[in-house]
Amino acid sequence: MRIISQDGTFDVPYEMVIIQRFDGKIYFLNKNLAGIEEAVEGIALGEYSTESKAKKAMEMLQANYLSRMELEGGYDEAQGFYVQPDFWVLPRVFQFPQDGEVEVGE
């Protein structure tokens, strides 16, 4: 699956990076790196006005990814038909939403 940054400047493969939420921002890291404390500002995928919005955006990414994993092959209960392995019915792209598009329950 591909992950697109809020502003569209980054397009990264989900399986090749680490996605980390830190201080209201969401970053990607090469899997060989650890920690975000000294991250360069240029690798942010999304920036949110509150930590709860950033957390919600991460949950949206995870739900998007998991929904596609369920369709990798076998019987799709929701649609009522069999899906061939590696035949992705849904798009394999997730773009982090803008701050105003993320709603969290208070």
Task: Please provide a written account of the structure.
With 106 residues, the protein is an alpha+beta fold. It has one domain (2-97). 18% of the residues lie in helices and 29% in strands. The protein is built from one helix and eight strands; from the N terminus they run E-E-E-E-E-H-E-E-E. The strands form three sheets. Strands 2-1-8 form a three-stranded mixed beta sheet, with helices on one face. Strands 3-4-5 form a three-stranded antiparallel beta sheet, with helices on one face. A two-stranded antiparallel ribbon has the order 6-7. The mean pLDDT is 80.
Topology:
Blueprint: E1 2-4, E2 11-13, E3 17-22, E4 25-30, E5 44-47, H1 51-69, E6 74-76, E7 81-83, E8 93-95
Tell me the radius of gyration.
Answer: 15 Å
Multimeric state? single chain
State the helicity in percent bands: 10-25%
Question: For the residues shown, what is the average pLDDT?
Answer: 80
Distance, first to last CA: 31 Å
Sequence of strands across the biggest β-sheet = 2-1-8
The biggest sheet amounts to: 3 strands, mixed
Percent range for β-strand residues: 25-35%
- Structural classification: alpha+beta
Task: Please count the beta strands (DSSP E, at least 2 residues each).
Answer: 8
Morphology call: globular
Number of helices: 1
Write down the domain tally: 1
